[in-house]
Amino acid sequence: MWRALAAVGALELRTRLRDGTALVIALIVPVTLATLFSVALGGDDPPLRATVGFVDLDRGEFPASVRREVMGSQELKGSVTLRDLPGRQEAQRALDDGEIGAAIVFPAGFSHSVGEGRGGDVSVLTSPESPLAGVVARAIVDRISALVDARTLAVRAVLKAGLPGDEVKELVERNGAAGPAPALEDDPLSGGKVDLSVHYGSGMAALFAFFVVGASFRGLLTERKLGTLDRMRAGPLAVWVPFAGKAAVGFALALVSVCVTWAASVLVSGATWGDPPAVFAVLLAHVLAAAAITMLVTSRVKTDAQADGVIMVVSFVMAFLGGSLVPMHSLPGVLQAAALLTPNGWTSTALTELAGSGAGLAAVAGPVAVLCAIALATGGLAVLGMKKGTLL
Amino acid sequence: MTAPEPVIAPDPASAPEPVIAPEPTSVPGHTSAPEPTPATPTPPTLSCRGLSKRYGDVHAVQDVGFDIAPGEAYGLLGPNGAGKTTTISMLVGLLRPDSGHVRVCGVDLAADPMRAKARIGYVPQEIALYPELTGRENLRFFGRLFGLPRRELAGRIDEVLDLVGLGGRADDRLKTYSGGMKRRINIGTALLHRPEVLILDEPTVGVDPQSRKAILDGVEHLVGEGMSLLYTSHYMEEVERVCDRVAIIDHGRIIAEGTRRELIALVGGADKVELSLEGDLETALAKLRAVEGVIEAAMTGATSIRLLTEGGRHLLPALITAVDGCATVTATQVIEPDLEATFLHLTGSTLRD
């Protein structure tokens, strides 16, 4: 059975190489378009401007030192503006209204809690519409977290040594755990390069994955028209072999396509898409979903020409709604909600998250799970349709 | 082009009894299904029973059943839309029958499709090959698909190419082949894995006379070597030439089955024998009328007599002997009734309606 599967796969690969769809659609076009878009519309870093909300319910030394550091930072000068807000709800409302791009919330008693060695939590509110502001806010909070951890550890150690509580603060600060001043030595904007080269690179990868994998499923309809599918099905091989052979090649080509577009984007523009294993997981899940959706299209149409047309329409609609062509935050609210119905929307969200925050696999587990669920649901419907249409 | 000689039917005494469904006056679509012929001593290569398939209210195939013995050529004769292709689709596992079963060399197709299909060589009605590949590449692909070992495959491909007479064009792309060449390699592809039964669905549709002759010669050769054959066509002369037994199918039902002679006998047809003679034709006419099997005799010219006989071709020696002494037979022509007439009689329509 594996020999038959290999024979179908080899023929499919050979056909795709011979008719140019493997090379042109899978590699040349997406890489070229991604590069052209990023050069024409992206180029260097876009102008970075962000307003970060600042909610100080603590009124202690930590928020005060953070404010001093941000205002004094040369890297943030002219790019980041702090806007004081009275409470968390107001910050959320301002965020929803687009008045600020992110917010940092210091809870009441934060400085006191840290001073007593009990640590504390600073909240960050972000919006997908302003990834840059989110990056800046997170960078600041990351720095605060490191300080808080160090301070908490030192205080606990001193307390355990038996020193009276009222002498702890002085001893800790005198011995190196210097005051609560987050030094923003690294450029906090460096992680904010979720620039257009990444956006268009990932967008083209997501869009062309549909075309590449769809071409293989469309090939099943061509085989049915030629009569070769029936000839195969009349032979001594399992009924799923022709389907699986083509699907495997289409899937592999689409995966190669998205990975090459990713690599080209990194090499050409120097932008990073984020943690490689996490990016690969997102792209893999996207290709799975694209495969299932194009399979569903193939199962519902009669001819290969129809399949071409419908796959093209579906791919572009998904790409548009899902932020592969236009950044999602530029779309009206209703379309942004619709983006969550498309795999491109989840892929775009996940890749933006990875590129912006430098987070790992755990940060995109949700979008990856949703993409897999889309693949499972549409794939199931597609299998039923294909059985009915004698494609499987 | 030379017209194919009609196949002389085997001795009726050794042939299975014909199965006749309807009375000549009955409506073909409402006849009862024929029972398959009695079992042959050896197990049939292909056997089906009670095959039925319906699409909505349309009964595409109803209660079809027959056996094909090893080395036997069996014809399925019927007009377009009679149910031939639907029947074949069920026989090769492309369509699941609503009822009935298929056995290939004793293997139940539904229970063990892989083993059953491995014994079938299926030649679809259309050219089911890749036009962008060469003939050899097409054969190699299907050879691998059908599990031929790599070492054996190259040699087998050459054998098949020789068999279908395309050795010289093997490395040309299929799209450059003529219609007849495509038909031949379409058949060759089904022979790669040495099937025990070859199923040909209208293999000569749209081919030139030369290719048709080559295809029929090749098929006869395969049958001569012991391969079983199921041959469907609406070309009566092809079925007559190639097949030992024939089933007439109409409106999804087999309405008659038997050897060519048996089927023709259903309509009570007599052979016409045209004799050219020299000598005393009056005396000869009287003597010929006395020969057993002669139904009627009439002088049709100064040197010719027409006879209506039963078993005209077999009667020729007796006829020549009968006129010995009074006349000399200089030429004979036997005109036998054909399946076309039988089909018309049984169905009320012609094959090409």
TrEMBL record, chain B:
Ranges of biased composition (kind: Pro residues): 7-21, 35-44
The UniProt record lists the keyword Zinc: no
Descriptive protein name: Putative ABC transporter ATP-binding protein YfiL
A Pfam match: ABC_tran
Molecular-function annotations in GO: ATP binding; ATP hydrolysis activity
Disordered: region residues: 1-46
Alphabetically ordered keywords of this record: ATP-binding, Nucleotide-binding
InterPro entries linked: AAA+_ATPase, ABC_transporter-like_ATP-bd, ABC_transporter-like_CS, P-loop_NTPase
Residue ranges annotated for the ABC transporter domain, each copy included: 46-276
Keyword Nucleotide-binding in record: yes
